[in-house]
């Protein structure tokens, strides 16, 4: 319920669904309890909400939330305390990884986080992935650490094969 991607919002999904309060539940803790009763094995919660509305929603964020804004751990703690299943969120029993892993997948490495340039090179050479997805991931890495306007960004944009990316 929090995806801000244009394809999701334009289709009335993701964050767009939050503009229809009749489709969401005002009390997220109660909603989390209801979700738990369906038999799910875990629940993922995005730790941001809209301070101007009278609800706290599962996986909700708004355009105004900055990606680096801290999660609202106290609100997540209320959900964690009310459930017996694992809650996947910042500071909870497990984690969600999206942009952090997209920008540098070595966050999962037992050796620790590696320089993004090394990760970028390894990603484009070693992993059997289609060119479109690989280019998307590499562009995300470059936009986070650098700029697509620099030569490395332009090279990724122009690439037509995995060999070009290596």
Automatic annotation (TrEMBL):
It is an enzyme of class 1 (oxidoreductase). Keywords: Oxidoreductase. InterPro entries: Aldolase_TIM, DUS-like_FMN-bd, tRNA-DUS-like. Its EC number is 1.3.1.91. It holds the Pfam family Dus. GO terms for molecular function: tRNA-dihydrouridine20 synthase activity. GO terms for cellular component: cytoplasm. Gene3D superfamilies: Aldolase class I. Residues 25-92 form the DUS-like FMN-binding domain. This is Putative tRNA-dihydrouridine(20) synthase (NAD(P)(+)). It comes from Rosa chinensis (China rose).
